[in-house]
Amino acid sequence: MISAELKEQYYQALVAKDSEYEGLFYVGVKTTGVFCRPTCPARKPKYENCEFYETAQQALLASFRPCQRCRPLSHPNQVSDVVRILVEAVENNPEKRWKGQDFKDLSIDESTARRQFKKRFGMTFVEYARARRMGLALKNIRSGRTIIDAQLSTGYESSSGFRDAFSRIMGAAPTHVDDGRVLKASWIDTRLGPMMAVADDTALYLLEFVDRRGLEREVERLRKRTKSAIVPGVTEPIRSIERELAAYFDGTLTAFNTPLFCLGTPFQKSVWEQLRAIPPGETRSYQDIAIALGKPSACRAVAQANGANQLAIVIPCHRVINASGDLGGYGGGLTRKNWLLTHEKNAYEHIR
């Protein structure tokens, strides 16, 4: 999370086109929908229209597209023809899911693309394409605009084209609100980055960081298992979890009361109940959880259930670490996991 003081510093560097800040931040301009390097020659936006990001991937996930003037994905040196061709291909069809044949059609080796993107931008080409695609889909969720407004803002001339693109991400057509069950999806900004919340009128079904690997598959599984349409919107459980997350990150809340709907097997649900029983500021190992369940040999199954949790932070899978004391894995990334554990320890000690 970039502090207010650092944002002011970054804005002054942007206005001054200070080259010393190249690579330290990117700026997303709300009025144009593009993100730029600090030295972009374009007219400088007002401070209130700027959002600052530490990486290009964060800007992409926030739905901003690369500026055509300063070309933020080309810094510090001109990119190779492979990278240029692929970036242009994504911009021409940002909703596309790339397959092996698509690389062959462009006469590009898939492993070369992966390697060059990773070296240049710190993410593979597939991660770049996914971030751009997810950013566009979540833009509609975040803005809460009407379907026709979302259609026009993303440049679709036909409503059918927009519905198809939306469905590839969210798994349900945006107008599918009357036939069967409907879940609402909303964007929540947090100190550790944006999160997606999915809920109906009574309970929260999913809460994940939007840059979590495999989020699209999680949304798809949720849609299929609940036989629901998932559309942009806000429900009372979403409002509730947004309020509680704000209090949690402020350090004034240690227990969540938003009603949850947990989709899982009886064993998975038993693991998740154990997770919720771990006091904030403390951790448990997979072995500890297995023993608490009366199944000391079920460590692997416990780990799998831990990873299947779709309600980040609320069901605190981040409080489970390896028996050695190492952090282990976390879908939101180990940096976030370490921050959450430290935050909870400090907040719990303060409240106590």
Features:
four-stranded mixed sheet, alpha/beta, 14 helices, globular
In terms of topology, how is this protein built?
Elements: H1 4-16, E1 26-29, E2 34-36, E3 50-53, H2 56-61, E4 65-66, H3 81-92, H4 100-105, H5 110-121, H6 125-143, H7 147-153, H8 159-170, E5 181-188, E6 195-199, E7 204-209, H9 215-226, E8 228-232, H10 236-250, H11 266-276, E9 284-285, H12 286-292, H13 299-307, E10 320-321, H14 334-351
Parallel strand pairs: 2-4, 5-8, 9-10
Antiparallel strand pairs: 1-2, 1-3, 5-6, 6-7
Helix pairs in contact: 12-13
For the termini, the CA-CA separation is: 26 Å
The helix/strand order is HEEEHEHHHHHHEEEHEHHEHHEH
SS-derived structural category = alpha/beta
Sheet having the most strands: 4 strands, mixed
Which residues sit in consecutive blocks of at least 5 with pLDDT less than 50? 172-179
Helix percent band: 40-55%
Give the helix tally: 14
**Taking Cα atoms only, what radius of gyration do you get, to the nearest Å?**
21 Å
Note the beta-strand portion. Answer: 5-15%
Overall spatial form: globular
**Quick one: how many beta strands?**
10
| Order of adjacent strands in the largest pleated sheet | 3-1-2-4
Oligomer class: single chain
Average pLDDT score: 81
Overall description:
This protein has 14 helices and ten strands. A four-stranded mixed β-sheet has the order 3-1-2-4. A four-stranded mixed β-sheet has the order 7-6-5-8, sandwiched between helices. It has helices spanning 4-16, 56-61, 81-92, 100-105, 110-121, 125-143, 147-153, 159-170, 215-226, 236-250, 266-276, 286-292, 299-307, 334-351, and strands at residues 26-29, 34-36, 50-53, 65-66, 181-188, 195-199, 204-209, 228-232, 284-285, 320-321. Helix 12 crosses helix 13 (299-307). The protein has 352 residues and is α/β, with parallel strands linked by helices. A hairpin with a 6-residue loop joins strand 5 and strand 6 (195-199).
